[in-house]
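Thread: Newbie trying to understand structure tokens

Hi all, I'm a second-year student working on a class project, and my supervisor (Dr. K.) asked me to get a predicted structure for one chain before our next meeting. I've only ever worked with sequences, so writing a 3D structure as a token string is new to me. If someone could post the tokens and maybe explain what I'm looking at, I'd be very grateful. Here's the chain:
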Amino acid sequence: MTYSPLHTKILNYSTTTRTRLSKLRLLSKVLLAFLTLNVGLFAFGQEENAQLSFLFVGDVMQHDGQIQAAYNSKTKDYEYDDGFKFVKPIIDQYDIRIANLEVTQAGKPFKGYPQFSAPDEISETLVNVGFNVILTSNNHSCDRGAKGVLRTLDVLDELGVPHTGTFRNQAERDKNYPLIVEKNGIKVAMLNYTYGTNGLSVAKPLIINYIDSVIIKEDIAKAKAMNVDYIICNMHWGKEYKPLPNSYQKRYEAVCYRAGADMVIGGHPHVVQPIERKEINKEEKLTIWSLGNFVSNMQTRTTRGGVMLGAHIEKKKGKIVLGDVNHHFVYVMKRKEGAITQYYILPDFNYNLHRVDFISSVEATRMKDFFADSRKLYNAENIGAVEEKIVDPSSSIGLTYKQLLTSYYSVRITSNGSELMTNKTLGHYFHRTVDLTGLRNYLSGMYFDKLMAKGHLNFLADCGIEGLSLVLVTPEGIKIVTE
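---
Reply by user tm_fold:
Sure, no problem. This is what the structure looks like when written as tokens:
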């Protein structure tokens, strides 16, 4: 987990002094520092050279095998968090994190292909791991009819996560579209469209955003009238399983850019397609034709993963400049861990160095092939400066991977853990994991050192959180650590 300098200082203080400040005194210090920090952030947001980063990931699928694997017979819930634990540290590095929810949340009976209705826990997990924009317009939006459209919106609203692409009625679309995301003094318009919905439709007043040149132009014009700094079109399009864009994609990419979009982000083919960083009418643009799969149960050679695309923009003298563009390839691996089978989303890393046979020889070969095929495609077809990122074992993310694969000290919360996870202010400091017996655990902090973990426990106790215990988390289980 990543902590602010303020939080680290408090942890060190608690550890070295072996004492506990009074709750009032500590919270006063935290509040004062928080206000001071926010003054600094506010000032930064007003600086001439403001910066903003984006992370885009591919299709979030839930096939029958995934739904069955996630079911926890002990709790009657569905467990997804652990499958995302290796990508969460990457997600945390970006300001705006966007995922395509390519299922409905229509409720039971849960079902995968061809007409998806996934457990609510998949959306909950997306929020838990840091996604703060969810796209809902895709070819599966109408899979469960009006109920599926409405209940998906209800679930996302309940989670408090911004979303766009489908709407209850025209008034809601008029009010909320384009989705405006504003951070660090930069105002961004997010648009989302799909080529179709597999021949299914829903009756008015429900609205699904379909790709239509007239509507796209009107929506971009509306975004410009709202004085946004940047416009991103998220397009669900293309021919499935094809590595290169087709004429339909190219035609509507041109529509978006002629109308004034700055980025075009594609999905749907279930395979990665190239990234193009290019100049159009003396303005730099960024297109990715397809992000591939972020998580799915697809098992052909090119569908076993996808790409996480990172992009940075900077506001210089009132003008937006495209900065660093990078990507991580990710591979999806199915692995049984006690009571639950996880679908791990894995960036390129030597996992078996820290946990022998975490990846079987068969999976290792498949992963190697997927990464090699993807790199070959990108080396041949990408345009412009786009950097591949691979997790450095000595980096903070690499060290986090080592902890996840071996062991770490943490603080377990047995009281109100789920409420803390969903708290907008505190949720970042907590994570959820399932042990081999199927017991769901709410944890805070990841430490190599027991004393630092103890200091963190003291900090949480001083903040009034009850039901705390110091634990050692290993692949074999979670054990309480005595004083």
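A couple of things are worth pointing out once you decode it. The radius of gyration is 23 Å. Residues 1-47 have pLDDT under 50 and may be disordered. Feel free to ask follow-ups in this thread.
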